[in-house]
Amino acid sequence: MSAQATPGPRAPVTLRSLIPAVFLPATLYGLGQGAAAPLIAITARELGASFSLAGVIVAVLSVGQVVGNLPAGRLVGVLGERGALLAASVLAVLAAVGCALASNLPTLAASVLVAGLANSVWGLARQTFLTEVVPLRLRARAMSTLGGVVRIGSFAGPLIGAGALLLLGPRGGYWVQVLAILAAGTIVLVLPDVERRRTRAGAGAPARPLRMFVEHRRLFATLGTSAVLVGAIRASRQVVVPLWGDHLGLDPAVTSLIYGVSGALDMLLFYPAGRVMDLYGRRFVAVPSMLVLGVSCLLLPLAGGPVSLLLVAALMGVGNGMGSGIMMTLGADLAPPDRRPAFLAAWRLCVDTGGSTGPLLIGAGAALSLGFAIAGMGVIGLLAAAGLGRWIVEPDRADLAAGGRGRVAGADLPVGGPAIVLSRDESGRTRQAVPSAVSGPKQPDGGSR
What we know:
Layout: H1 19-36, H2 39-46, H3 51-101, H4 105-133, H5 139-168, H6 172-190, H7 194-197, H8 209-215, H9 217-247, H10 252-268, H11 270-280, H12 283-299, H13 306-322, H14 326-334, H15 340-366, H16 370-391, E1 394-395, H17 398-403, E2 421-424, E3 430-433, H18 436-439
Parallel strand pairs: 1-3
Antiparallel strand pairs: 2-3
């Protein structure tokens, strides 16, 4: 027996252990976003923008998030997750202060653009962190919970922001955002740096996110295209319900209530969605989610009153909630261990590109027929379901079946070692696995040596 002392085993990562380090800051960040988001158009109008120009300034937030994805991949690769989160918090605070103090439209637009950049860095850093530290058997639940708590924060943010308007004036929501992000950043600051607790698989020179599209061109041409479609229909959901309510001549308060019910149903399903993905596979959530969203968009033009609109909007909320965390989970499953930030940045670019173009497609189609534009988005949802059903790569669950413990695919491999192996099983479906020669012989408890 060796006399050399060996370090004790690290406590296993559980969803509960991630609450203070990951989910609480994410909730606060989402709360800040929710408190400020409704004010952007109002502030633009206050500064003299027309309705169309105010809409353009609101869209700048999505533009910032899209263009920020690739630089975010480089930033996370250089600074690490914790450093990138702190940098994003600083950017987000500066953006919120800029919006609160803006005296002209260029300043407001620039601040909104910076906010979008900060959002892309924050989201990528959180996703990369969870991909590295959460075992495979909990990955989908962790990702869906991350998406769920952000939605909860975004849902509560406007309510808290409304109270701040009464106390601090018409721009009070921005100051709520400042406080929420400062609190989130402070929590991140006092946490141990993840790189000091474990060896990162992505150590070494960071890869360029754009190279991911070349190295994985077939994947991005197939599953990546499906991700664009998913982003488009999900973002369009936030637009079509208010537009159709206005088309029916409903009172704005009624439309807002219907939209709120849809959002509440969306929030309630994030944990069940993650559990189903972990137990039965990604397709069992991704395909039904897109089918329900697609069918609900096809049904929406048939809604002729508040009751039918409520039913269709509720169906949309269920469909979107069923897919909570699916895009983050798929990205985590596919990301090469030695190039995670770069790959996830490219993957998020696909999703966010769809998210920014979806509402634009609705707006362009509405010039001809609003009902036709919404139904067209339903077709996009059905295409997304077909693409996901065909191209999703399911993780290899042999390790789970043997010991029930799971592992992050390739997270403990040496730098430069094999990453992910894609193969075909008997049914012809693509499978993903860690090479057995690297993972080592199995122990009686199902672990690796």
